[in-house]
Amino acid sequence: MDKKKFAAEYVSKDGKMNDDKEIIDIVNRITGKVFNVDSNIKLSSAQQYAFITLCKKSGRKINKTLIDNIFKIKDILNDAKHLEIKKFQNIEKKINGIKRKNISKNNFAVGIDIQNVEEFSKLIDEKDLKKSNFIKDYFTDKEIAYSVSRSDAVETICGIYSAKESIRKTGNKNDFKKIEITHVNGCPVFQNYHISISHSAGVCVAVCIQT
């Protein structure tokens, strides 16, 4: 086979050499023969090590067990693709691991929620916070007691609900009752969060920052 013609067969349409061309060139160089991707190749032990060394210099890792007996170039290429995929997956795992560590370290997130007070009030049985099943399902006794102590209990507890929703939007998937909003000097408080609740024109808005 004409070597120039052979080489031309392994040039892609954009003018770049295919990966298999470089590996074939190495095999041809150490054997003094002309092989193609489908050729059955048998290397001596010395040729095997020469092949592994030359491939390593070109950035390719060869699995020696593949070339111990008769092999084809396409077997090497398929194994190389498998190694590249595995390498990429390992890199991806490391990157994801670093991301998770950074998220855990920084632990920073923002959540916001808005509620219509009138619509929210329709969920309250008999308009009585202490008797409502809905309120008992979503709020703790402390939250209910605090709301009842305020001049507008429904608006207050609606704001607390909005705060709970904003916290859940930061990725906190705890049950609503486990996200207990307490108050210190009138300010809403939840561990590891800064919370702000605002009421205006029948609407309440809550914003939280996870710290």
List keywords for this structure.
single chain, 211 residues, alpha+beta, Ribosomal Protein L22, Chain A, 2 domains, five-stranded antiparallel sheet, 9 helices, 15% strand, rod-shaped, disordered N terminus
Structural account:
The protein has nine helices and five strands. The protein has a five-stranded antiparallel beta sheet. The N terminus is likely disordered.
Structural class: alpha+beta
What is the CATH T-level topology of the largest domain?
A: Ribosomal Protein L22, Chain A
Q: Numbering strands along the chain, what is their spatial order in the largest sheet?
A: 1-5-4-3-2
Using DSSP, what is the number of strands? Answer: 5
Q: Judging by the overall fold, what is the CATH architecture of the largest domain?
A: Alpha-Beta Complex
Number of helices: 9
Which runs of at least 5 residues are low in confidence (pLDDT < 50)?
1-17, 82-86
Summarize the entry for a quick read.
Helices cover 50% and strands 15% of the residues. The chain has 211 residues and is α+β, with helices and mostly antiparallel strands. Strand 4 (193-200) and strand 5 (203-210) form a beta hairpin.
